[in-house]
Amino acid sequence: MTLDRKYLICGLVYALAGMGLGIFMAKTANIGQHVTHAHIMLVGFAVSLIYAIIYKLWLVNANRRLAVLQFFTHQVGSLVMFVGLFLLYGGYMPEAQIGPVLGLASFAVLTGVVLILAMVVTAGKVPNPA
Ligand code: HEM
Ligand code: HEM
Prior knowledge:
By secondary structure, the protein is mainly alpha-helical.
């Protein structure tokens, strides 16, 4: 399966999870998880969807290894971030414990941006075969 499609599917799964959490917050009138919800919707759904579009439009001939590394960096970082935020804002784990994990997850998500930026910049330098 192509990476743009994988990003699209992951993004839509996060839309489902994030909206589910949003509906749960609205139903229980407890918005304690609004930061988790916001990041699932934005880092999980919106950013994944934007990456899918970037891969589809600008990274058709991307270096496969770098692209797979970028995909897993973003997806693993995001998943760890969402679980970490859920545990933190749900009061299941203290900040002292989950904080360093969230720091690592954030760094992974940021690395995903650096990698895709590098790929987009270098892709522009490859002559268009068409
Ligand atoms: C089924 C759909 C959705 C439901 C039921 C829902 C529900 C909620 C609720 C209850 C809050 C907390 C509001 C508050 O702080 O008073 C919230 C916040 C938020 N939602 Fe959603 N939401 C939905 C879809 C979305 C979507 C599609 C996005 C973005 C793509 C989104 C992004 C956000 C953000 C960024 C916040 C944080 C806002 C802030 O704290 O200033 N939500 N949502
Ligand atoms: C490395 C990744 C990121 C880190 C470490 C991070 C960290 C944070 C922190 C610490 C807050 C404040 C939470 C609080 O009020 O207690 C926050 C809020 C927020 N962030 Fe992020 N963020 C990241 C990525 C993003 C991205 C990519 C987006 C949008 C595409 C985003 C959108 C938001 C929004 C909308 C809020 C307000 C949420 C609310 O009040 O419910 N964040 N973020």
